[in-house]
Amino acid sequence: MSRGDLAGLVAAFGAALHDAGLPVGPDRSERFARAVTLLAPTTTAELHRCARATLTCHPEQFEILDRVFDAVFRGYADDPADFRGDPNAVGTSTTSASSGSTPSAGPPPAGTASTGREIEIPVATVGSATERLASRDFATLTPSELSELADLMRRLAVATPPRRTRRMAARAHGNAVDLRATLRRARRTGGHPVRLMRREPRVRPRRLVALCDISGSMEPYARAMLQLLYCAAGTSRAEVFTFATRLTRLTKILARTRPAVALHRAGQAAPDWSGGTRIGAALKAFNDTFGRRGMARGAVVLIVSDGWETGDPAQVGVEMARLSRLAHRIVWVNPRTQSPRYRPLVGGMAAAWPYCDAVVSAHSLNALDPLLAALEGRARHAAHQ
């Protein structure tokens, strides 16, 4: 179902609820549409739960919603007693006729007769194409399909652990007395420091530094990670580099532009895009040029690579050891680790493994949660296990 079809269906459903006496406005309808997009219900029962959670605010409103929901989505108007399978309850056709009330609109359509259990009718069209792409491996997505995931990536929160800075900030319950502020305030009380002003160090998120392997095997995953950093983290808080046979800084190129344009410019700026891989040389270039200047000091370093090294793997171990002494933590994204049979036995990955605080696959949108947790430090996936 396209977004236009979903919007029209939700608007019609909201109008029907409003006409039936339920206070449903555009805000609730928008909330219902967002829930349908995120949860992608595949049955009427799941869709019904979404409607109850977003369109009602009190259990007394359930009866109206259930009646309108059945008329709109199940194609018939029935009494709740019919849905429970109770033929003797008030509201069935026999009782309704004797009491002079309006009879039921007719039996339910084929396949939806009351059976005393919850009715399950497939509604496969409700799920959007974006949610279906979320479970696919980034390597199988075309550039246009990857760009469709930008909206979902914007809803993710790429955060890093906080760190204490040297700058101080006024705090009511700070652990240090701010002498200057105390004396300034004492002017109001004749020079007597009636109240002690306090301060404590400011807290800021740690810098995020991303090194993305753009060799042939890693190019789709590098594009996905660059898009994630652009959409979720924002390049103002992240330093971004790519490497294959050489190291290229992309921070300025990825700033203040749409993801598709940023990725195109990134490909133009990196002359070795989809080339070979020299991880050790790239790490050495970063450590020598940027790491020792302080960029990696206390930062969270994200390395995206499958570990294939065309140079000397021993150099990877040496440079990873240097980097680990500077960085707060190192998170390595290797899509090959999605296989339970994967073992880092040879090459650059084996040399880098002991120095990684976390190793995750992050091969699809649905597999990004462990990555976000590792970057924030909420979950520790020990690389040695």
From TrEMBL:
Residues 205-371 form the VWFA domain. Residues 91-104 have a biased composition (Low complexity). It comes from the Bacteria. SMART domains: VWA. InterPro entries: UCP010256 (IPR011195), Uncharacterised_CoxE (IPR008912), VWF_A (IPR002035), vWFA_dom_sf (IPR036465). This is VWFA domain-containing protein. Residues 83-117 are annotated as: Disordered. The lineage of its organism: Bacteria, Bacillati, Actinomycetota, Actinomycetes, Micromonosporales. Pfam families: VWA_CoxE.
